[in-house]
Amino acid sequence: MASPVDVGALLAGVRAGDRAAVSRAITLVESANDDHRAAARELLGALEPSPGSTRVGISGVPGVGKSTFIETLGTHLTGLGHRVGVLAVDPSSQRTGGSVLGDKTRMPRLTADAAAYIRPSPSSGTLGGVARATTQAMIVLENAGYDVVLVETVGVGQSETTVAGMVDTFLFLTLARTGDQLQGIKRGILELADVIAVNKADGDRVQEARSAARELAGALRMVHRSEATGEWTPPVLTCSGLEGTGVPEVWAEVGRHREHLGADGIAAQRAEQQLEFTWSIVRDELARRLERSPGVAAIRDEVRTAVLSGELPASLAADRLLAAYDAD
């Protein structure tokens, strides 16, 4: 049995900005234990929303240098007086469910910065797990005084859509590549991105990066028809996370995007995100109840054998499992 959680003491610690309390609170909201989930709901119910915070999702193509960029950006922001929280949505170990990339080891300067907090968050193998744990962790960080929260996604598959649905601004990092550089970027990513930066624009790669930025800007004009509608067109910049050049300009564009949204726009966007998050929690909880259903457990092996042998179509197998769950 899990040890009882003193939610009041934990809440006081979070509001005081105590790093140990923040870590315990995020561990609590990530936990799948039923007692912990009840305590997490109590904790989150007492935390206040922070409309003045800045939530930025950061994704990018493989090898783009996200960690170096985030460390440089985070250090720049703490130098400006911000308190920065970094949530890294990592792929999970299929055996342990733990984070496997070790973001703290990849951001040594930011890890040592007293005004920053880095948390590698396991995805628990499901996008629903990402949405629940990361959204709630953001709320904890904001109540602990972190006014900028950066959410890093691994940049594969559907995770970008998940992260874009929980932040104010979605920043996409890419590289200058030889040949058809646009082929590696799906149209969906271009539609999600609010700001795009071509990273590693340093050394002898500066001109190549600028050329790639121009190419991307042209592609975006085909995706976004903003002149007539007044909608936001994602700017394309070049930067070097390693050298720091262009990083302040990237952050300035994040600020410009927030100004474009305005306070009412950000509030409306977050309200929509909360509604989607509500349904995400419902789906997550229903999946948990389905797995624990005695009726489902009683026929699971039988259904599995029938499906694998071809005797039972998947649609009918699903109907049987749902009927067993409903009968509980």
TrEMBL record:
InterPro entries: AAA+_ATPase, GTPase_ArgK, P-loop_NTPase. It comes from the Bacteria. It holds the Pfam family MeaB. Residues 52-202 form the AAA+ ATPase domain. Belongs to the SIMIBI class G3E GTPase family. ArgK/MeaB subfamily. This is Methylmalonyl Co-A mutase-associated GTPase MeaB. It comes from Nocardioides bigeumensis. The lineage of its organism: Bacteria, Bacillati, Actinomycetota, Actinomycetes, Propionibacteriales. The gene is meaB_2.
